[in-house]
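thought: fold this chain, then report.
action: predict
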Amino acid sequence: MERKFLTAEQIAAALRSGEVTSAELTDEAIARIERDDKAINAICVPDFDRARAAARDADQARARGEDRPLLGIPVTVKESYNVAGLPTTWGMPPHRDYLPTEDAVQVSRLKSAGAVVLGKTNVPLGLQDIQSFNEIYGTTNNPWDHGRTSGGSSGGSAAALASGFGALSIGSDLAGSLRTPAHFCGVYAHKPTLGLASSRGMVPPRTPALPVAPDLAVVGPMARSARDLTLLLDVMAGPDPLTFGVAHHVTLPPARHERLCDFRVLVLDEHPFIPTGAAVRAGVDRVADALVDAGARVEWHSQLLPDLAEAATIYMQLLVAGSVARFPVESYEQLRSQAAGLSTDDHSLDAVRLRGMVLSHRDWIEVDTRREFHRHGWRQLFAEFDAVVCPVTPTPAFPHDHHPDLRQRRIDIDGIEYPYFDQLVWAGLATMPGLPSTAVPAGRSPEGLPVGVQLIGPMFEDRTPLRLAELLERRIGGFQAPERGA
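observation:
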């Protein structure tokens, strides 16, 4: 494999052996970005001068005998994280000149671990799309097919990894924003258990970087191998040092099993709200077949599984309630009028989303209580199973769609169109109860596009789906460099 596609683990070994220096790796990565990123547009904010300085510092530190987890390894950071001296815009034009003065917690942790930050990666406007494009930085293309999206909202990070622009990246996930780009670009991502990794400083521009605990949203690692996900998660995990970190230290339990044959897995490929496309279903089947061949216990149905329709409804309500919380009063009143005009018989996800946008606090508490019952149901399921395998979205990467009204967009699933945001139901399966989920490559579509699946695990047992991902990588293969981009 070309050096640009080495894993972080392989790079660390080469650095320790003296085979290469961080300065050499960083110069090579910068040269690749300057040459190849014109077609991809993944790196929206380069930071090459400081990266070269950090690489020289890493080489000097290693010469002194230091050996930190990411020492000298080139990485990228999602644009939505504050990096002192670099723009944080979230793709919003009014904030194009905003420069935070302090690093986000996770950026500080990367630097403390010795990582060399090459720059920031592109995002959608306000992080609120399944694609990554905005007026400031333009469109990020899928490295496998430039006419298709790289996903969102961590689409720039996934495209950067697939293109060899750094070995690791950090992103965030509220509606599949780590997992969907990984699935679309053929790389790995891990959505940690809710609350496992501090997100302070991953905030909208000009918003104070306070130690809040956002509902549903997490920050997490992206990589080109499962083992690299674990390496980076260990750097990221831990509470905010301003709050729970004063008293708590995180020690994740080990993976439940070390061999594929010992895993108990529930496989899902059907959802009551949206069909699964043939290409994604084939990816799920490929993973299921590998598990069966390895001797794992694989089931396709369980009475313990929480109701998927209710889970999707709860997720959509919580998701949109948080998304519109800061809308202007005039916009909120318009939504209230639209919701009041819905038929009482309309139980579509479009209707669920509209009603969710105007939930009262009393109603939100009721939805949150229903979420707790689902969390309890998942605890019961994970007493019988170790992981759940299911789609990330119903299709591989779809063609760019920049229609300004997101509610008018449609997703084509094997020739039939469905509401654009209905495809989020699979991402919400893990997000709503706060479960960890690892996105892994699972083959190619007939058109040659990457297809991934997600491995959902028990709460705070993140090492279990990560270990399963590592074992599957050995059995069915993992990241492959893009073969084309047109």
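thought: worth noting. The first strand starts at residue 43 and ends at 46.
final: tokens above.
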